[in-house]
Design goal:
- The chain is built from no helices and 11 strands.
């Protein structure tokens, strides 16, 4: 089972930027896709972005499209989430997740993912 470790969270003012990283503990040949989810205080966890590990196709929630960019570095077994133009409503714990190969992949469904990181806090002040 691959293990995921997130980093890069912190406190930033509205309009600022942060880059989150998620490192996989082993070679990523078994990973089909990776994603970022987030959970704000008092709310359910929600999908933010996902990326196909081999082809690099990216998917975004409407709430982050145009502001967040997901990318991966195959050599470093790492996926990134570049977050620009941050808003107070982006405040949440951000989780990295990974899925193995599947015939169809519903990127926004938590049930698709078999490995999760511990989460990293992002706080955006107004």
């Amino acid at each position: 089972q691959v293990q995921l470790v997130e980093s890069g969270g912190g406190l930033v003012q509205a309009g600022g930027s942060l880059r989150l990283s998620c490192a996989a503990s082993e070679r990523t040949f078994s990973i089909y896709g990776m994603a970022w989810f987030r959970q704000a205080p008092g709310k359910e966890r929600e999908f933010a972005a996902a990326i196909n590990w081999s082809g690099g196709t990216a998917y975004y929630a409407d709430s982050v499209k145009g502001r967040f960019t997901i990318s991966r570095d195959n050599a470093k077994n790492t996926v990134y989430l570049q977050m620009n133009s941050l808003k107070p409503e982006d405040t949440a714990v951000y989780y990295c997740a990974a899925t193995s190969y599947r015939r169809t992949w519903t990127v926004s469904a938590e049930s698709e993912y078999t490995a999760w990181g511990q989460g990293t806090q992002v706080t955006v002040s107004s």
